[in-house]
Amino acid sequence: MDPEQLTNAVFNEQPPSEIRTARLLVRAWQPGDAPMLKQVVDANLVHLQRWMPWAMHEPSPPEVVAERVTQFADAFSAGIEWLYGIFAPDGNDLLGGCGLHPRIGPSGLEMGYWLAAEQTGKGFATEAAGALTGAALALPGIDHTEIRCDPWNLASAAVPRRLGYRLVEQLRHDAVTPAGAPRDTMVWRMTREDFDRRA
Questions:
Q1: For 9-28, what is each residue's pLDDT tens digit?
Q2: Short-list 114, 108, 112, 121, CA closest to 195
Q3: Is the distance from CB of 15 to CB of 82 less than 8 angstroms?
Q4: By three-state DSSP, how is residue 26 classified?
Q5: 161 within 8 A of 151, measured Cβ to Cβ
C-alpha cells in the first residue's frame, strides 16, 4: 500500500486536529469554517442527498450551520467524536468532510466521509480515509476501524477496497436510505494487524 495514503504516526489519547497528506489538509472544524461549509453543502444538495441522511435536512440557515460547526469543534475537544473538514493544502477551499465515530464498540472507530460532487473521482476520499485510518489505529485501545456504506454507493465502497479493508459482513435491511427506504449495509474492516502488514 502507498505509505502516503496510510500514515502510521503515533498520537496520544485522541487523533490529531490536523493531518497533512500529499494533496490534502484534513483539519478539525473551526467556528470560522461555517460559511464555507454552508456554501459547499448548499451547492451539492442533489449529490449529497442521494447518500447522506443528514443532507436531507439541508439547506440550513447560516446561524444553524455556525452552531453546528461549533458543536463539531466542541465534540472534538471533548473526545466525543472527531469530525474534520477536507481542504486543499492551503486551507482555503473546502472539498468535503470526514470523521471518526466511537459507535461500534470500545475498541473500534467507524469512519465516514463525503466530497463535493466536483471533487469526486480524484482519489481524495481514499487519501483522507487513509490518513484517518492511520490516526485511528495509532490510538491506545483502538484495534480496528470500520467503513460502512450502502452497497449501491459504488464510489464509497471503492475507498475501503483500495485501502486494503476487508469486507466482513453485509447487513440486510439494517438501515434506511436518505429517502427512508430500507437498505443493506456493507461492513468493511481494517484491524491493527492488517494495517501494520500493509503500511
A1: 333 479 999 999 999 999 99
A2: 108
A3: yes
A4: strand
A5: no
